[in-house]
What does this fold into?
Amino acid sequence: MSSALRGKSQVEHALSEMRRMILAGSFAPGEHLSEPLLAERLDISRTPLREALSRLVQEGLVDRLDSGRCQVSSYSAQDIMDAIEVRGTIEGLAARLAAERGVSAEKLSECRNILVALDQAVGDGGNVAFNAYVRLNAAFHRWLVEAAGSAIVARQVERISRMPLASPSAFLDGQQDIPAFRGTLVMAQQQHLAIFESIEGREGARSEALCREHARLARQNLAFVMTDSALSRDSIPGLSLVKS
It folds into this structure.
């Protein structure tokens, strides 16, 4: 393996591990990140570590201070609400573009298959096939962005989804045993079906509005987890970064 490839591999390793640790609450919000200690912990040199830190700054998980040092980011609940709203707005744009520009029969068939599988995973909400739902929900949201046929929109959705708790799957970890949460999956699937129907029917404005409404389910879930004292803040990746 060339030195360039080894360097890239080290950056990706550091990025993946540090992202995982931050979202899991291994570091407290505002905690300074020591480069020597991190390099030792991850068994990498300082150069790829610094590149990984720079990418985490871009993702919003790490803040760089005027001194050049890095610290773990912290967010208010309103920050996360705003990020979810932004994602819903951009996904709404993707849906409108897909509806107005049209989607191929092959691409529509692909989504129908996803939705059929999601119906089976959700059932009536009483016994959700949770792992399948997580995978298929991600597939639906990925299809939605791809259907727009816009690299610009895709990049913006990817960027905002990197924010803690802002992605379509953010609240799907740690809540599978809560009956009220499982009930929201039934509602979410109904919205998936309506979004697809509006795109297939070339209803741009309706599809955009439905996507924005769909994202607001995540805002409801955030409000729920922020007020549920019985729910561990470490059980949902990224929740530890949100100030109570």
Notes: The longest strand covers residues 62-64. The CA atoms of residues 210 and 227 lie 27 Å apart.
